[in-house]
Amino acid sequence: MASHNLKIHEQCTVAPPSAPQTTLPFLFFDLLWLRFHPVERIFFYSLPVTHSNPSIFFTQVVPKLKTSLSHTLQHFSPLAGNVLWPYGSPNPVIQYNPGDGVSVVLAESEADFDHALDNAPKDASESRCLLLPFPPRLEDHVRGTFVLTGADLERLKNRVMSKWDSVDIVKAESGSNSTVSSKPTKLSTFVLTCAYTFVCIANAWNGVENEKNKFGCGFTVDCRARMEPPIPENYFGNCVWGNLVAAKPSAFIEKEGFVIIAKSIHSKIKEILDKGVFHEADDIAPRYEALAKQGVEVLGTAGSNRFGVYGIDFGWGKPLKVEIASVDRALTIGLADNRDEKVGVEVGIVMKRPVMELFATLFRGGLSDE
């Protein structure tokens, strides 16, 4: 068991060197995520020998990090502000006032660094203990990272393509066969990763708790390029929308569940491209409520294999590992690019220990099946 002890060296606020008061109203996309938990990532770096000496780290490295953060906040001052809901205003705002800043905690952990880098499932609270404030302990939950290589994805793609025309998907709402486009020439890493992982989770959960037999899934879409007119890539606010996949709740644990869910996710993405990001937008909340009443466990995603998190270099090289700690707050898988090759994806998951053990067996075994 890794040590969870933390020694707090410093707590401070880093502010922009100079920035005018700024008030930004919450827009439609911002309001959607207001009450959601934040995405919490942990970046693990190995410092060069010249920076790892404590006296050098605290006297030279830390001041440079603070200065760099301060200068960056000058260009993104709302990040140093606060969410306010002015009296009489219909919506909250983000307001930055001179003097506002970002809270920074400098702490030293006794945790074993190599143990933290290991992808094998481990006590989920170990990562949580690197974040402040400490959340409640996750009893009997473990956190693991699973990698799909380029070869794995090619194998999964071939499996779906070979059965595309012979396996039908059934929409959850109507119970009738869904009309899916003709066989595509390719399937995205996102479609293959989500479908395969969701189906492995569903079968593992059902294998441990037999009464868990109804599942659903959803994902978020970057709407910037899909708006009319398109929104520039450097847009500062939120521009992501949630979508539910129309698949029969029992499909996840059927014999051809992987093919069915892959086709369903692909169909949903094509529908978004053809009909727009807001097609059936008014139905999302009622559909979530209906699924909850039916006892359906809805699986979701965080992060993306396109974010390039392993390209974030502060002068120490790329991270040795990037982990989305907040996947433990919901039934969510965390996606990131593959650190060790240009193709592939890393999937982070938190589940109860018995479910994780079966999931690992299904996940790895399914990649070797032809």
TrEMBL record:
Gene3D superfamilies assigned: Chloramphenicol acetyltransferase-like domain
Protein name: Phenolic glucoside malonyltransferase 1
A Pfam family assignment: Transferase
Domain of life: Eukaryota
GO MF, one example: acyltransferase activity, transferring groups other than amino-acyl groups
Matching InterPro entries: CAT-like_dom_sf (IPR023213), Plant_metabolite_acyltrans (IPR051504)
UniProt entry tagged with the keyword Oxidoreductase: no
Organism: Vigna radiata var. radiata (Mung bean)
Keywords per UniProt: Acyltransferase, Transferase
Claim: Transferase is one of the keywords in the record: yes
